[in-house]
């Protein structure tokens, strides 16, 4: 990593920490699962309460050193696994069911600021974007995938309207040289976009988002992860998801709404899923929680965070097969090969 660890420690704010802890009610004790350990902000706060146990996961093996510090402090109450949350069952099978399972999606500040990993537009390094345990890099996608696949990835996963022009220019450049550095991709996007400047968002945001999602199969991870979490929750147990872009929020919102007791008829944008008899959650679960103005001021990247949670109605579990069918477009897209 080419950023001193200490400067990161200072600037690391776990998003909506107060809101997450309030929903968890750790003062009552219990078993908590932190599916996205990152800097360990949520895990550590939960462990400050004496009767809590935390099982934490992160696909990034660089999180292991931060986890080690916590496990030394909270002996026998904390365990860490370098694993993807789509494999949650491998870790939780045979253990006591959880009181709360938490997902705080996306990249951590540690990953963004480690310029060698190529997540940031400011990087001059290799186009990697692997959060950990991925089998492909952004560089491989950009140089090996065909025009149609590239266009679909950037258009669908990045919701980028100018994907066709960006892909045309990617193909032009890669005929001459291999696209391996972040700076080359930034240059291509800037040349391709009609409006090269926006006060609100960087012109590269959408394409970078698309590549990162594809490299890490983030849609598949989320769909698999929330279904598996549901299976390992106690009755009255809670599932909390903090998401950062509309594709993720659409999946979470649809899942909570469609499998809740008082499922109100969804809008035409959220068609009802046909697993009619499967109910996992109490209530309506259509409430969205956003960060406070004070938090956004202190930590501007938190402005796009959306928190949703749902409470389990019982322990029985039936595989919600139609939920995966609803998002099959994204799941199939993430299976594309060169
Ligand atoms: C936004 S950060 C979490 C920050 C954390 N809540 C904290 O308080 O420090 C997201 C973390 O989740 C990890 N992650 C993302 N997708 C994952 C997945 N499918 N399985 C396991 N970890 C994942 C990333 O590697 C990253 O470290």
Protein described:
- The chain is α/β, with parallel strands linked by helices.
- It is 42% helix and 12% strand.
- It is built from 16 helices and 6 strands.
- β2, α4 and β3 form a beta-alpha-beta unit.
- α9 packs across α10.
- The model is unreliable at 1-10 (pLDDT under 50).
- Residues 14, 36, 38-42, 57-60, 63, 84-85, 104, 106-108, 131-132, 221 line the site of S-adenosylmethionine.
SSE topology sketch:
Blueprint: H1 5-11, H2 17-24, E1 30-34, H3 41-47, E2 52-57, H4 64-73, E3 78-81, H5 88-92, E4 98-104, H6 109-113, H7 138-144, H8 147-158, H9 163-176, H10 182-192, H11 205-216, H12 218-231, E5 233-243, H13 246-258, H14 293-298, E6 306-311, H15 321-326, H16 328-333
Parallel strand pairs: 1-2, 1-4, 2-3, 4-5
Antiparallel strand pairs: 5-6
Bound molecules: S-adenosylmethionine (SAM).
Residues 14, 36, 38-42, 57-60, 63, 84-85, 104, 106-108, 131-132, 221 line the site of S-adenosylmethionine.
